[in-house]
Amino acid sequence: MPIKVPDLLPAKSKLQEENIFVMDESRAFKQDIRPLKILILNLMPLKQQTETHLLRLLGNSPLQIEVGLLHTSTHTSRNTSVEHLKQFYKSIDDVKSNKYDGLIITGAPIEKLPYEEVNYWEELSQIMEWSKTNVTSTLHICWGAMAGLYYHHGVDKYMMPEKLSGIYTHTINDPREKLVSGFDEEFLVPHSRHADIRKEDIEKVPSLKILSESKQAGVYMIASTDGKQIFATGHPEYDALTLKKEFDRDTAAGLNPMIPENYYPDDDPNQAPKLRWRTHSNILISNWLNYYVYQETPYEL
User: Does CATH number 3.40.50.880 belong to domain 3-239+275-294?
Assistant: First the structure.
């Protein structure tokens, strides 16, 4: 089944080129189906790129999904046009009276800042508090996962001596968990972050369970026992070239970045990286939508 997106959203044409089933609003209006309402809080600087990443995964689900885009009004984006935000995005004040089946909170490249120093932390806290009563299940990604663990459960982050960047092997802790249904025993996930969370801190919280981890990248997936909060410290939504773009950007800025691990063939940045984590990403999103959203959400929101 398709995802329903605004008729003029730029990501729509790119996804159609990739044979992702996308339905515009005018066609969806004619179908007598109650779609899942999924809201994306996009905190990434390159918002159009992230829209494509996430819509690509949502579009692979057998469920019909109506997607809404949310941004923080207390932060001015320097990398996305005001026109794009006005046309396609809403603020929490616009949607706070609504109910949603699912919410996705993206990452943001601000791990080095204490949470309270993030200029939109108060607004983000308001959104996360609102999600407790107005959203069936929330998926937090990378910095969004760390922020969610801190806000909801008091689990703090720690700075790493070097940036974690690359493609890492992960394992599952309990194959009986619904979120990892259909996963391989080992699977790959991209990571790109300067901060980490500690396993022992999570294990102190009775309402949290670690579902997946990596010897190199640490804890990856955590879920609250009620399924309302899912946390993924990596970037399953990244496409094949996202880490390359980050590496090229940092190299051009004179930051002398480490070559992303296990990413380029032969660790040679002159070679094209291969996409090796798409299967995991698709299953993760499908499982979240099915078991934690569709199976739990009321028919009448």
Answer: yes
